[in-house]
Write a structure and sequence with these properties.
Elements: E1 4-7, H1 11-24, E2 27-33, H2 40-44, E3 47-52, H3 63-72, E4 77-79, H4 89-97, E5 101-102, H5 107-114, H6 116-125, E6 133-134, H7 141-151, E7 155-159, E8 168-171, H8 174-192, E9 197-201, E10 207-215, E11 221-233, E12 236-242, H9 249-265, E13 271-278, E14 284-290, H10 297-304, H11 308-316, E15 333-340, E16 342-343, E17 349-350, E18 353-354, E19 357-359, E20 364-366, E21 369-375, E22 382-383, E23 390-398, H12 401-413, E24 416-418, H13 424-432, H14 434-438, H15 445-449, H16 461-484, E25 496-501, E26 504-513, E27 516-521, E28 526-534, E29 541-546, E30 549-558, E31 561-566, E32 569-576, H17 578-586, E33 598-600, E34 605-610, E35 617-618, E36 623-629, E37 632-637, E38 642-647, E39 654-655, E40 660-664
Parallel strand pairs: 1-2, 1-4, 2-3, 4-5
Antiparallel strand pairs: 6-9, 7-8, 7-9, 10-11, 10-13, 11-12, 12-15, 13-14, 15-23, 16-17, 18-22, 19-24, 20-21, 21-23, 25-26, 25-32, 26-27, 27-28, 28-29, 29-30, 30-31, 31-32, 33-40, 34-36, 34-39, 35-38, 36-37, 38-40
Helix pairs in contact: 4-5, 7-8, 12-13
The protein binds adenosine-5'-diphosphate (2 copies) and magnesium ion.
Length: 665
């Protein structure tokens, strides 16, 4: 076994690999870029070596330099994590030539599977069901049209070298192909330096289900069942689970047989993933094979008890796999939520910045289940524009799917992030949706359920109760404290209150027993019991139990009250005396300021182009600005005709979210 391993990656996956190495008694070296000098991975590794400036091409992608570091530090092997050099056969060969072991599959397997056109050929030869389509390169637009018409619309135009959901476009008709072909080709050239394109049938309303495989260098291959990753935006995964709620034993076994057949066809000798699109009728078609550790591997580890990083290391060291297929079993259910620095309220656009607060839930056993959090950041760290915007992968395990979902919903309540936009309210919304709980998933899920974008969920009656109780408790704590320091106007001992939650008014009578509150809702003849209250003025999380159910909400002060977020519901609440509640009800409603004349930046970033001038007469749909962050460009078009009275930015300016870019006259 190796005594020292170099990790050629950063962030959560570097930390993840270090954890397993520590457990196995293997020393670790990480390489890092200037942007990561203070990172958790650098802090945790036994040794850390700076390799260059932030851009990956000048640091994490410098194969030769990284191998030189391995030799200098006497590391015998390199774990590439995912992304970066993990699927680079040239790098794997260079490792071998330099007497450093590459912890991943043999370069021949990476070559065969790294390319989608070629991997489909291998798959077809190994009797794997592939998506119907043209297994070859498309020459030009005319060729693309001919092939698409042979396959039958809808079709998917795809970059052979694609990954991360990029270089993919659906075409519903001839015009889409004519417009889409060159666009995908240009995107592929830009993103992967390879403009080979192929076309396959677009399977409508499918699910994404993938099989984890594992091989050693002695001809043993097993599969570790499936993961379902159908909850996607921009063809990228956000929520994954294992097993899949769709599969029955027979389908699972059939998919496993095909995945193993494909792995054997390329002498696969490490951890890898065979991805399938699956119809709601359980028909399945091979998509691609990822010859690396997969981002969502924790859910497989949670249901099988196998540490995939350990298995990769053992296989790379030449060990014989210590178990066979018959030893593997699915135990319980696991969920993973990818917590991203992105704003779900703004079409999931990236949001960069500093983690002013970062407090994940405690890992370990909870209520008969398990919480696991894979992250590479700490409070105070920055999510920079140079790398992937993933902040953490929160996973839960429970004996049943319903249990894993409930535990995830609770764990998300207890995940506290401030300083940048994040998708926790969105993830909570999905966990609370009946459709998700019923297991009726599809890759269209987000589009189906949030057709006009994510705007939170309506609060349920139970959630309105929680918010009512929380507001009363906070109000009491604040007035008691104000009274204590001599500034209080209201008596904390007052019993009768009116709580205004959104548009509804609820009369409440308070009694205090010890530190607990009994809240009688006088109009409804019910009493809410709030116990185990954990909050002090200024804190942004409020924890307690309502009628003995534990919950956590985020709170912030707002004029005349509080804004409270419980999972995906955000509510404005006021606690008033009956007299002021009457007065309040008679006040005219405030009209929000008119912002329709403003063009605001939907995300922080850099202004790439500002092709408009002050005083210009613009037409609806005309491109006004292009803003870029995290390699993603956002094109802002005029939402109406009109004259631009003010243009406040120019190309090269940095802008924050909500900054005003221009104003119509
Ligand atoms: P997967 O296919 O493992 O589920 P994705 O499809 O989300 O992962 O990722 C697509 C590509 O982006 C892969 O090459 C993956 O290795 C890379 N990638 C994803 N997340 C990260 C990350 N946090 N750091 C580095 N690379 C990443
Ligand atoms: P990447 O390398 O970017 O992961 P994939 O080929 O795995 O590319 O496709 C990414 C996602 O796009 C899939 O998870 C699936 O949701 C969708 N997709 C890909 N091919 C098809 C297809 N032929 N029909 C329907 N959906 C597809
Ligand atoms: Mg894929």
């Amino acid at each position: 076994m190796f005594s020292k391993i170099l990790i050629a990656n950063r962030g959560e996956i570097a930390v993840r690999v270090i954890k397993t190495c520590r457990r196995m008694g293997i020393a670790t070296v990480v390489v890092y870029s200037e942007a990561d000098a203070d990172s958790l991975a650098v802090e945790m590794a036994d040794e850390a070596v700076l390799i260059g400036p932030p851009p990956a091409a000048q640091s994490y992608l410098l194969g030769e330099k990284i191998i030189a570091v391995a030799r200098d530090t006497r590391a015998q092997a390199i774990h590439p994590g995912f992304g970066f050099l993990s699927e680079n056969a040239g790098f794997a060969r260079l490792c071998a030539a330099s007497d450093v072991v590459f912890i991943g599959p043999n370069p021949h397997a990476i070559d065969a599977m790294g390319d989608k056109i070629q991997s489909k050929k291998f798959a077809a030869a190994a009797n794997v069901t592939v998506v119907p389509g043209h297994v070859g390169e498309i020459e030009d637009t005319a060729h693309a049209v001919t092939i698409s018409e042979q396959i039958g619309y809808p079709v998917m135009i795809k970059a052979s070298a694609g990954g991360g959901g990029k270089g993919i476009r659906v075409a519903w008709n001839r015009q889409d192909v004519e417009e889409g072909f060159s666009a995908v080709r240009a995107e592929a050239k830009g993103a992967f330096g390879d403009d080979r394109i192929f076309i396959e049938k677009f399977i409508e309303n499918p699910r994404h289900i993938e099989i984890q495989v594992l091989g050693d260098k002695h001809g043993h291959t097993v599969h570790l069942f499936e993961r379902e990753c159908s909850i996607q935006r921009r063809n990228q995964k956000v929520i994954e689970e294992a097993p899949s709620p769709l599969l029955d034993e027979a389908t699972r076994a059939a998919m496993g047989v095909q995945a193993i057949a494909l792995a054997r066809a390329v002498d696969y000798d490490s951890a890898g993933t065979v991805e399938f699109v699956v119809g709601q009728d359980k028909s399945f078609y091979f998509l691609e094979m990822n010859t690396r550790l997969q981002v969502e591997h924790p859910v497989t580890e949670l249901i099988t008890g196998i540490d995939l990083v350990e298995q990769m290391i053992r296989s790379a060291a030449g060990e014989v796999m210590a178990f066979g297929q018959a030893d593997l079993k699915i135990s319980g259910w696991a969920m993973e939520s990818r917590i991203y620095a992105e704003d779900p309220y703004r079409k999931f656009l990236p949001s960069i910045g500093r983690l002013v607060r970062f407090a994940p839930p405690a890992e370990g056993q909870h209520d008969g289940g398990v919480v696991r959090n894979d992250t590479g950041v700490r409070e105070g760290d920055e999510i920079s524009m140079f790398y992937d915007p993933m902040i953490a992968k929160l996973s839960t395990w429970a004996p049943t799917r319903a249990g894993a979902i409930s535990l995830m919903a609770r764990a998300l309540e207890d995940f506290h992030i401030e300083g940048l936009g994040h998708n926790i309210p969105f993830l909570s919304a999905v966990m609370d949706q009946d459709r998700f709980r019923s297991g009726m998933l599809s890759t269209n899920y987000i589009k189906d359920e949030f057709p006009s974008g994510f705007a939170g969920l309506e609060a349920t009656p139970e959630q309105v109760d929680v918010v009512t109780a929380v507001a009363l408790a906070m109000h009491r704590i604040i007035t008691a404290r104000a009274r204590h320091i001599g500034a209080g106007l209201q008596s904390p001992d007052r019993k009768d209150w009116v709580v205004v939650v959104g548009q509804t008014r609820r009369a409440a009578r308070l009694s205090v027993v010890g530190g607990d509150l009994a809240i009688e809702l006088t109009d409804e003849a019910r009493t809410l019991n709030l116990t185990a209250i954990d909050w002090r003025p200024g804190a942004s999380l409020f924890r307690a139990r309502l009628d003995d159910r534990a919950f956590t909400v985020s709170v912030s002060p707002a004029d005349e009250g509080f804004v409270i977020r419980l999972r995906a519901a955000v509510l404005k609440v006021m606690v008033l005396t009956p007299v002021s509640a009457d007065l309040h009800a008679r006040l005219p409603a405030k009209t929000p300021p008119d912002t329709s004349r403003l063009v605001v930046s939907p995300m922080p970033g850099l202004v790439i182009t500002a092709d408009v001038a002050q005083g210009e007469d613009v037409k609806e749909g005309q491109v006004l600005f292009v803003i870029e962050a995290m390699k993603m460009q956002n094109i802002l078009r005029a939402e109406r005709d009109g004259i631009l009275k003010v243009v406040s930015v120019k190309a090269g300016d940095s802008v924050a979210a909500d900054d005003i870019l221009a104003e119509f006259g």
